[in-house]
Amino acid sequence: MSLRFAVLSLLDIEPGSGYDLKRRFERSVNHFWSASHQQMYRELHKLHGEGLLDCVEEVQDGRPDKKVYSLTAAGRQALEVWAAKPAAAQKIRDPFLIQVFAGHHLPLAQMRAELERHIEEHRHKLTTYETQNARFYRRPLEQQQKLWISHQPLLLGIETEKTWLRWAEQLLVKLDREIAEGSEPNAH
Questions:
Q1: pLDDT tens digit string along 54-85?
Q2: Could you give the CA distance from residue 188 to residue 180 in angstroms, rounded to a whole number?
Q3: What does pTM read for this prediction?
Q4: Cα 170 to Cα 107, 109, 124, 143, distances in angstroms
Q5: Cα–Cα distances in Å, from 163 out to 85, 126, 167?
């Protein structure tokens, strides 16, 4: 259900084609809500069929015509009604944390290697978020003021990644200490 409102929210900011929407989705919402390109295109067609989106075809030289979607009054109203409803808090679902929880079954060096791999992924994600944050502040001031609340999930993402990395680096120090001392869990 939230993909529907992610699409409406992105088109509320600015009309666009399916391709435009895909790019915006990847730079924003994708960090906390995932969807394939096919799911997004299906959702666009469905929302258009329900009268929540308008679609205008723009002629392009040397390329197929481009469909540009925008919210209808009904789409904006549906978004407003949905946004006013309480959202349920979500629990973390991270397979790596289950591995850590069961980590006493692994050699410490293996756990350390897996942790380093995840640290690299989270550093990359933090860099991506920080790049997007800088891009937000390059927007005109009136856009920043209009979209400041939409910017908050990105700021939370940055803080979440920083916290995750602090935790992981502390765990890495502990693993290194245990490896140096020759302490191994009762691996099976």
A1: 999 988 888 888 999 999 999 999 999 999 99
A2: 21
A3: 0.75
A4: 18, 16, 19, 39
A5: 29, 11, 6
